[in-house]
Specification:
mainly beta, OB fold (Dihydrolipoamide Acetyltransferase, E2P), 2 domains, 50% strand, 12-stranded mixed beta sheet
Protein backbone atom coordinates (compact mmCIF):
# COMPACT_ATOMS: atom_id res chain seq x y z
CA UNK A 1 0.00 0.00 0.00
CA UNK A 2 1.39 3.41 -0.94
CA UNK A 3 0.33 6.69 0.64
CA UNK A 4 -0.21 9.58 -1.75
CA UNK A 5 -0.62 13.28 -0.85
CA UNK A 6 -4.07 14.38 0.12
CA UNK A 7 -5.57 17.11 -2.07
CA UNK A 8 -6.81 19.17 0.87
CA UNK A 9 -6.26 22.88 0.55
CA UNK A 10 -3.99 24.16 3.31
CA UNK A 11 -5.94 26.08 5.91
CA UNK A 12 -3.70 28.84 7.15
CA UNK A 13 -6.20 31.16 8.81
CA UNK A 14 -8.30 30.92 11.91
CA UNK A 15 -11.16 28.53 11.19
CA UNK A 16 -14.74 29.24 12.24
CA UNK A 17 -17.94 27.23 11.92
CA UNK A 18 -19.92 30.42 12.27
CA UNK A 19 -17.73 33.47 12.62
CA UNK A 20 -18.17 35.37 15.87
CA UNK A 21 -17.59 39.09 15.86
CA UNK A 22 -13.92 38.71 16.76
CA UNK A 23 -12.96 36.03 14.19
CA UNK A 24 -9.72 36.86 12.35
CA UNK A 25 -11.23 35.66 9.06
CA UNK A 26 -13.67 38.55 9.04
CA UNK A 27 -11.67 41.45 7.65
CA UNK A 28 -14.47 43.86 8.47
CA UNK A 29 -14.58 42.98 12.15
CA UNK A 30 -12.48 44.90 14.61
CA UNK A 31 -10.60 42.95 17.24
CA UNK A 32 -12.41 43.15 20.59
CA UNK A 33 -10.82 44.50 23.74
CA UNK A 34 -11.09 41.05 25.33
CA UNK A 35 -11.09 37.58 23.78
CA UNK A 36 -9.82 34.86 26.07
CA UNK A 37 -10.75 31.98 28.33
CA UNK A 38 -10.44 31.72 32.09
CA UNK A 39 -12.15 31.23 35.41
CA UNK A 40 -15.14 33.33 36.49
CA UNK A 41 -16.12 33.95 40.11
CA UNK A 42 -19.48 35.63 40.69
CA UNK A 43 -19.42 38.82 42.77
CA UNK A 44 -22.89 40.22 42.11
CA UNK A 45 -25.89 39.31 39.97
CA UNK A 46 -24.31 40.83 36.86
CA UNK A 47 -20.60 40.92 37.75
CA UNK A 48 -17.89 38.28 37.72
CA UNK A 49 -14.20 38.43 38.47
CA UNK A 50 -12.28 36.95 35.54
CA UNK A 51 -8.94 35.23 36.12
CA UNK A 52 -7.03 34.65 32.89
CA UNK A 53 -3.59 34.73 31.30
CA UNK A 54 -2.18 36.82 28.47
CA UNK A 55 1.22 37.36 26.83
CA UNK A 56 3.47 40.04 28.24
CA UNK A 57 6.46 41.46 26.34
CA UNK A 58 9.70 40.08 27.76
CA UNK A 59 7.99 37.09 29.39
CA UNK A 60 8.23 33.59 27.92
CA UNK A 61 4.92 32.42 29.37
CA UNK A 62 1.54 34.18 29.54
CA UNK A 63 1.10 36.00 32.83
CA UNK A 64 -1.93 35.89 35.19
CA UNK A 65 -4.37 38.81 35.17
CA UNK A 66 -7.70 39.66 36.76
CA UNK A 67 -10.52 41.81 35.44
CA UNK A 68 -14.17 42.51 36.14
CA UNK A 69 -16.69 41.16 33.66
CA UNK A 70 -20.24 42.47 33.41
CA UNK A 71 -22.94 40.29 31.84
CA UNK A 72 -26.32 41.57 30.73
CA UNK A 73 -28.83 41.84 27.91
CA UNK A 74 -26.04 42.39 25.40
CA UNK A 75 -24.35 39.08 26.25
CA UNK A 76 -24.88 36.13 23.90
CA UNK A 77 -24.59 32.83 25.78
CA UNK A 78 -23.31 29.47 24.55
CA UNK A 79 -22.63 26.17 26.31
CA UNK A 80 -20.43 23.22 25.41
CA UNK A 81 -21.49 19.62 25.94
CA UNK A 82 -19.64 16.34 25.33
CA UNK A 83 -21.17 14.03 22.74
CA UNK A 84 -20.85 10.54 21.24
CA UNK A 85 -20.19 9.52 17.66
CA UNK A 86 -23.82 8.46 17.28
CA UNK A 87 -24.91 12.01 18.15
CA UNK A 88 -23.37 13.31 14.92
CA UNK A 89 -26.19 13.18 12.40
CA UNK A 90 -26.03 12.93 8.62
CA UNK A 91 -25.49 16.30 6.94
CA UNK A 92 -23.97 17.90 10.05
CA UNK A 93 -20.98 20.21 9.47
CA UNK A 94 -18.09 19.25 11.72
CA UNK A 95 -14.43 20.01 12.31
CA UNK A 96 -12.04 17.10 12.76
CA UNK A 97 -8.55 17.27 14.24
CA UNK A 98 -6.64 14.51 12.49
CA UNK A 99 -4.59 13.59 9.43
CA UNK A 100 -6.38 13.18 6.06
CA UNK A 101 -4.70 10.45 4.01
CA UNK A 102 -5.34 8.82 0.65
CA UNK A 103 -3.91 5.29 0.33
CA UNK A 104 -3.53 3.63 -3.07
CA UNK A 105 -3.44 -0.14 -3.54
CA UNK A 106 -4.18 -2.81 -6.14
CA UNK A 107 -6.88 -5.43 -5.58
CA UNK A 108 -6.80 -9.06 -6.68
CA UNK A 109 -8.27 -8.08 -10.06
CA UNK A 110 -5.45 -5.66 -10.73
CA UNK A 111 -7.62 -2.61 -10.24
CA UNK A 112 -6.35 0.46 -8.44
CA UNK A 113 -8.23 1.20 -5.23
CA UNK A 114 -7.99 4.47 -3.32
CA UNK A 115 -8.94 4.42 0.35
CA UNK A 116 -9.49 7.76 2.05
CA UNK A 117 -9.25 8.16 5.81
CA UNK A 118 -8.92 10.86 8.44
CA UNK A 119 -6.55 9.12 10.83
CA UNK A 120 -5.77 9.65 14.49
CA UNK A 121 -8.69 11.97 15.14
CA UNK A 122 -8.19 13.55 18.58
CA UNK A 123 -11.19 15.87 18.57
CA UNK A 124 -14.43 16.58 16.72
CA UNK A 125 -16.22 19.90 17.14
CA UNK A 126 -19.50 21.24 15.85
CA UNK A 127 -21.79 24.16 16.64
CA UNK A 128 -21.66 27.93 16.75
CA UNK A 129 -18.95 30.44 17.66
CA UNK A 130 -16.09 27.96 17.41
CA UNK A 131 -12.60 29.22 16.68
CA UNK A 132 -9.86 26.73 15.96
CA UNK A 133 -6.09 26.89 16.16
CA UNK A 134 -4.24 28.36 13.19
CA UNK A 135 -2.68 25.67 10.95
CA UNK A 136 0.71 26.18 9.32
CA UNK A 137 1.54 22.68 8.05
CA UNK A 138 0.58 20.88 4.86
CA UNK A 139 0.92 17.40 6.37
CA UNK A 140 0.19 15.85 9.71
CA UNK A 141 -2.69 16.49 12.10
CA UNK A 142 -4.74 19.67 11.69
CA UNK A 143 -8.31 20.93 11.78
CA UNK A 144 -10.28 20.10 8.62
CA UNK A 145 -13.89 20.89 7.84
CA UNK A 146 -16.21 18.14 6.65
CA UNK A 147 -19.84 17.01 6.51
CA UNK A 148 -21.12 13.80 8.05
CA UNK A 149 -22.10 11.44 5.22
CA UNK A 150 -22.56 8.25 7.27
CA UNK A 151 -23.28 8.57 11.00
CA UNK A 152 -22.59 5.99 13.68
CA UNK A 153 -19.57 4.20 15.06
CA UNK A 154 -18.18 3.67 11.53
CA UNK A 155 -18.31 7.41 10.91
CA UNK A 156 -17.75 8.72 7.40
CA UNK A 157 -17.51 12.31 6.25
CA UNK A 158 -17.57 14.16 2.94
CA UNK A 159 -14.32 16.09 2.50
CA UNK A 160 -13.72 18.11 -0.68
CA UNK A 161 -16.31 16.01 -2.49
CA UNK A 162 -14.89 12.64 -1.42
CA UNK A 163 -15.93 10.19 1.31
CA UNK A 164 -13.44 9.61 4.12
CA UNK A 165 -13.57 7.07 6.93
CA UNK A 166 -12.98 8.68 10.31
CA UNK A 167 -10.58 6.79 12.59
CA UNK A 168 -10.91 8.25 16.08
CA UNK A 169 -8.54 7.70 18.98
CA UNK A 170 -9.80 6.16 22.22
CA UNK A 171 -9.58 9.53 23.93
CA UNK A 172 -11.23 11.49 21.11
CA UNK A 173 -13.15 14.46 22.53
CA UNK A 174 -16.44 15.26 20.76
CA UNK A 175 -17.75 18.76 21.44
CA UNK A 176 -21.11 20.28 20.58
CA UNK A 177 -21.48 24.03 21.17
CA UNK A 178 -25.04 25.34 21.37
CA UNK A 179 -26.38 28.86 21.54
CA UNK A 180 -28.60 29.46 24.56
CA UNK A 181 -31.82 31.46 24.36
CA UNK A 182 -30.85 33.44 27.44
CA UNK A 183 -28.62 33.43 30.46
CA UNK A 184 -29.08 30.13 32.33
CA UNK A 185 -31.40 30.48 35.30
CA UNK A 186 -29.02 28.56 37.55
CA UNK A 187 -25.30 29.22 37.25
CA UNK A 188 -22.46 28.03 39.44
CA UNK A 189 -20.70 30.78 41.33
CA UNK A 190 -17.49 29.66 39.64
CA UNK A 191 -17.35 28.94 35.92
CA UNK A 192 -14.82 28.04 33.27
CA UNK A 193 -15.62 30.19 30.27
CA UNK A 194 -14.43 31.62 26.98
CA UNK A 195 -15.36 35.27 26.81
CA UNK A 196 -15.41 38.11 24.31
CA UNK A 197 -16.02 41.65 25.50
CA UNK A 198 -15.65 45.38 25.13
CA UNK A 199 -13.91 47.80 27.46
CA UNK A 200 -16.26 49.13 30.14
CA UNK A 201 -16.28 51.69 32.93
CA UNK A 202 -18.81 49.71 34.98
CA UNK A 203 -17.49 48.07 38.13
CA UNK A 204 -19.02 46.05 40.98
CA UNK A 205 -19.93 47.82 44.22
CA UNK A 206 -17.04 46.30 46.15
CA UNK A 207 -14.44 46.65 43.42
CA UNK A 208 -10.78 46.21 44.34
CA UNK A 209 -8.34 48.94 43.38
CA UNK A 210 -5.79 46.36 42.23
CA UNK A 211 -8.24 45.05 39.63
CA UNK A 212 -8.07 47.91 37.16
CA UNK A 213 -9.71 46.48 34.01
CA UNK A 214 -13.43 46.09 33.41
CA UNK A 215 -15.17 44.58 30.40
CA UNK A 216 -18.73 44.11 29.21
CA UNK A 217 -19.27 40.59 27.83
CA UNK A 218 -20.70 40.37 24.33
CA UNK A 219 -20.20 36.59 24.11
CA UNK A 220 -19.77 34.01 26.86
CA UNK A 221 -19.24 30.29 26.35
CA UNK A 222 -19.67 28.01 29.37
CA UNK A 223 -16.89 25.44 29.04
CA UNK A 224 -17.03 21.80 30.14
CA UNK A 225 -14.11 20.22 32.02
CA UNK A 226 -14.74 16.91 30.27
CA UNK A 227 -13.70 18.56 27.00
CA UNK A 228 -10.27 19.80 28.08
CA UNK A 229 -8.62 17.65 25.42
CA UNK A 230 -10.52 19.51 22.71
CA UNK A 231 -9.87 22.93 24.24
CA UNK A 232 -6.15 22.25 24.11
CA UNK A 233 -6.39 21.97 20.34
CA UNK A 234 -8.65 24.96 19.84
CA UNK A 235 -7.22 28.40 19.27
CA UNK A 236 -8.06 30.89 22.00
CA UNK A 237 -7.02 34.51 21.51
CA UNK A 238 -4.86 36.28 24.13
Amino acid sequence: MRAIPCSLVLLTAVLCLQSPAWCDDDAKAEAPALATQGSLSQLEESFYELSYRKPVPGKKKPQPFKAYLEVGEGTTWFADAPARLQDLTEGLDVWLYGTPVESESTNENGQTVIERQVRGVLAIATGEALTLREVKVEKGPRWVRATVSKPGQALQVKLEGEDYRVLVTKACAILIRKKLDARPAKLKKKLLAAVVGDKSEARPKKAKAKVSDSFSATQLVILNKRLNAAYGLMRQPN
